[in-house]
Amino acid sequence: MAVMSYGEAAKLAIAEAMRDDQRVWCVGEDLGRGGVFKQYAGLREEFGPDRISDAPISEAAIMGAAFGAAMVGTRPIVEMRFADFALCATDELINQIAKARFMFGGQSRAPMVIRKPMGMWRSSAAQHSQSLEAWYAHIPGLVVVCPSTPQDNYAMMKAAIACDDPVVYLEHKNIWALEGEVDTAAPGEFGKARLRRQGADVTIVSWSDCANLAESTGATLAERGINAEVIDLVSLWPWDKRAVIESVKKTGRLIVAHESVAVGGFGAEVVASVAQEVAMRVPPRRLGAPRSLVAYAPNLEDQLRVTEEMIARAAQEMMEAEAA
Amino acid sequence: MSLRNFDAGKGLERLVLMERIRAFEEAARHAAVEEELVLGAIHLSIGQEAVAVGLLESLAREDYITSTHRGHGHTLVKGADPAAMMKELLGREGGCCGGKGGSMHIADFGVGMLGANGVVAANITIAAGAAHGVKLLGGDQVVVCIFGDGAANRGPFLEGINWAGVFDLPILFVCEDNRYSATTRTADMTSGDVGARAGALGLNVTRVDGNDVEEMAAASGEIIARIRAGGKPEFMHARTYRLDGHTYFDPATYRPEGEAERMRAETCPIARQRDLLGAAGIAAERMDAIARAARDEMFAALEAAKAAPWPADDTVFEDVQDVGSPALEAF
Ligand SMILES: Cc1ncc(C[n+]2csc(CCOP(=O)(O)OP(=O)(O)O)c2C)c(N)n1
Ligand SMILES: [Mg+2]
């Protein structure tokens, strides 16, 4: 086991995959200098400019061309720089990549990893801060991953590169430097949640950086005598519905917390799926951003954040509601 | 086309291919209009057959093409089986895409036909990428990307062609200019010249009479040989004319009076090829027999399609994805 950052972990996974398989290559703006978040630093030196490829500022062409190259037998890793810019390549991802295999009756595959750094990060304002994971979970044909730790960013990147489906790979920009132990022998598995904390009182479900918040909330709650079970979904499609349902059967209480806008968010999917199968002791809670826009000023930015205190308060209220 | 250097044998082969496209589409139209068996929209390329035939004859089976919503001709010339294509148009089992795509998503990867597309211009970046993949894998295939005149006004035209230029990719972009974008005269919505746009992006541009199959074949053969030898992308602007409506149910009344009739009389590529072959001494009866054989072949394909069953209901859950597949997991 080695300690490394979230960003380095994904880079290691990519480097290993590229050594193993000549068909794997990376393409995106500024990759030749390591990428905007240095996620590719040093890779060009090892793999050369064809496999760590620069690209014009042409998001539609980056996505579309990588798809064409996938159809003829390569395995591209597509860098979108900011999840927000990937919206310039929406047709390519949603209408082409996600649908081709089906529309062509199984004749083609799109073994691609589409990296989209997401989330609130340092006063980046409304066009550089979005979390749109729910959009992608809504689209048949896509796999959706939101890792929150170095371990998962290593293991899920490995799994994503090996996968024959297109994987929308959403890394959180705020945690590139987050350090943790990485066991390179532990394989990543889609649809397998990570139990971040065990507890019998309330189930807290989250993903991406918010899962880290949920875990620390679990520690805070323990000090207040509440034992939370914290589940990090890691992948949203497929998602580990079984693990969540089993947990809620045990606790009878469910909180879902995510950074993205609550309305129409994936939290709603989790709550609805659980509600169809489990009679809960108290109504479930969903915590997400209000339906407003991420602002530049730090105090305004903070207005949209789900905080540890909000999650903790929800848990306490659920415990008290029943006691009353 | 003059008779000097005219190879009548080759000319006849081209006539055969054009007649097969025409017959396929007439059979498809018959299935749609007379028998109401084609459920979705189909876009016919009647009048444009010379582009597909002349353009694609110098490609090998391993070479790739991407096409548009108006792609039956391209697909047929690339080598797809007309019965499988017709089954696809009728949404039947055994269709090239298992009845999941229909006319607008027709594809046959086995012959290098990487798909028609229901989104105008979307195939341009994909084709550039296929060429990029060929280059990365060290292959020697050439990619031909065919799109309409309307597609030149979408962003992927710029992004895809620039991409091919930047990475020196083995691809020929072909604007199949039939003068209309759905019900709009494309010239009214286009600033400047399409070929000039590609020229400004650094590509060599060739302008061709797309209704002259001999000129199409000669120009395409030279360009594709150059691309195969040197790997540099090129651009072709092929002028043609859509003799029928945008879809089979479009009466195309927006065209100036008499335009379609005049074009049908003067520029139909099949009629022109027959004239040329006639002048070279080929008997009309022989050419009539070619047309009849094509018709018989394509109406037989239609019969085969009509006899095919609907795809099994549960195939709608297949080939969505491996991970999180609706066929495997009860979500
Ligand atoms: C992005 C997009 N916009 C609009 C349409 C609707 N549409 C289908 S075909 C067509 C006209 C395309 O014209 P052109 O590119 O010249 O091709 P042609 O139909 O003449 O072969 C339009 C507008 C579409 N399919 N995709
Ligand atoms: Mg047109």
Explain the overall architecture.
- The complex is a heterodimer of chains A (324) and B (331).
- With 324 residues, chain A is of the alpha/beta class.
- Chain A folds into 2 domains: 2-182, Thiamin diphosphate (ThDP)-binding fold, Pyr/PP domains (Rossmann fold); 194-323, Rossmann fold (3-Layer(aba) Sandwich).
- Helices cover 39% and strands 18% of the residues of chain A.
- In chain A, the strands form 3 sheets. A 7-stranded mixed β-sheet of chain A has the order 3-2-4-5-7-6-12, with helices on both faces. Chain A has a 5-stranded mixed β-sheet with strand order 9-11-10-13-14, with helices on both faces.
- In chain A, α8 (209-223) links the parallel β10 (202-206) and β11.
- In chain A, α1 packs parallel to α7 (150-162), α3 (59-71) runs parallel beside α4 and α8 (209-223) crosses α12.
- The mean pLDDT of chain B is 96.
- Chain B has one domain: Thiamin diphosphate (ThDP)-binding fold, Pyr/PP domains (Rossmann fold), CATH 3.40.50.
- Chain B has helices spanning 8-33, 49-56, 72-78, 82-89, 122-137, 155-166, 194-200, 213-230, 259-267, 269-279, 284-307, and strands at residues 64-66, 143-148, 171-177, 180-181, 184-185, 204-209, 234-239.
- Helix content of chain B is 44%, strand content 10%.
- Chain B is globular and about 65 Å long.
- Chain B is of the alpha/beta class and 331 residues long.
- Chain B contains 11 helices and 7 strands.
- In chain B, α1 packs antiparallel against α10 (269-279) and α5 runs parallel beside α6.
- The N and C termini of chain B lie far apart (62 Å).
- Chains A and B meet through α3, α4 and α5 of A and α5 and α6 of B.
- Residues 148-150, 178, 180-181, 186 of chain B line the site of magnesium ion.
